[in-house]
Amino acid sequence: MASKDIENALGMNYAYLSTLFRKQTGKSITAYKNELLIEQAIDIFKKSNKNITEVSNKLGFSNPYYFSRVFKRVTECPRLYT
Predict the structure, then answer these.
(1) 46: domain range?
(2) Which of 1, 25, 66, 80 is the most buried (most CB within 10 A)?
(3) Does any domain span residue 81?
C-alpha cells in the first residue's frame, strides 16, 4: 500500500499520520510494513519451495535485489538463503 493509498483511506495527511505512527510505535510506517512483509516472506519460504524472485514478486517488491536488502535489514541476517 502506497502512502497516497493510506492517506486517501484515512482521509488524513500522510506526513501527519507518519508522525503519529512513529510516536506510538517508534517506527516509520515503511519500516513496520517491511517487517510485516518479511514475516510473510519467512512463512512462504518455510511452507514452499519458492525462490527469492518468486517471493519478492508475490509480496510486491520492485525487484529481488531490493527484497534481499530489506530482508537482511529486517532480520539482521547477513545472507539470504532459500
Answers:
(1) 3-75
(2) 80
(3) no
pLDDT at 54 (0 to 100): 97
Rounded Cα distance, 42 and 14, in Å? 29
Q: Which set of grid coordinates corresponds to residue 30? A: 515503511
Read off the pTM. Answer: 0.82
Cβ atoms of residues 21 and 29 within 8 Å: yes
Number of domains in the chain: 1
Q: Which amino acid is at 29?
A: I
User: Whole-angstrom Cα distance, residue 35 to residue 75?
Assistant: 9
* Per-residue DSSP letter, 59: T
Q: Following DSSP, what letter does each residue of 26-58 receive, concatenated?
A: SS-HHHHHHHHHHHHHHHHHHHS---HHHHHHH
Give the per-residue pLDDT at 64.
95
CATH number, position 60? 1.10.10.60
